[in-house]
Design a protein that fits this description.
Elements lengths: L10 H13 L7 H27 L6 H18 L6 H23 L1
Length: about 110
């Protein structure tokens, strides 16, 4: 059995992960599915966080782009600091928030 961290996620896998996170508050997934999404999205956000940090080092300190990267890092840290909570709705809401943040960071990295 391969570990999800053995290979970098493909674009399709990342998009499916974001779609699942966005749908989480529509039709509530099981708590197990929420936990799986939580784990995968946290790994994805940790990887994206490192990419933003790497790109930020090449930016002019205190420039508009540097501050945009800094804001992404702060916002990502804030969403990662939250927990799923004890209920299904709070878990679904949390994974949706993780997915939204991942989508924001991905859009910024593609620019």
């Amino acid at each position: 059995m391969t570990n999800p961290t053995d290979h970098p996620p493909t674009r399709e896998h990342v998009q499916q992960l974001l779609d699942d996170a966005a749908a989480a508050t529509g039709i509530l997934p099981t708590i197990g599915q929420c936990q799986q999404l939580n784990d995968e999205l946290r790994r994805l956000l940790a990887d994206l966080d490192q990419q933003v940090r790497h790109r930020q080092t090449g930016l002019t300190p205190r420039s508009r782009d540097w501050y945009a990267a800094d804001r992404l890092l702060v916002d990502t840290g804030a969403v990662l600091a939250e927990t799923m909570g004890l209920g299904l709705l709070s878990a679904a809401t949390h994974v949706a928030a993780l997915g939204r943040q991942a989508a924001v960071v991905l859009r910024w990295l593609e620019v």
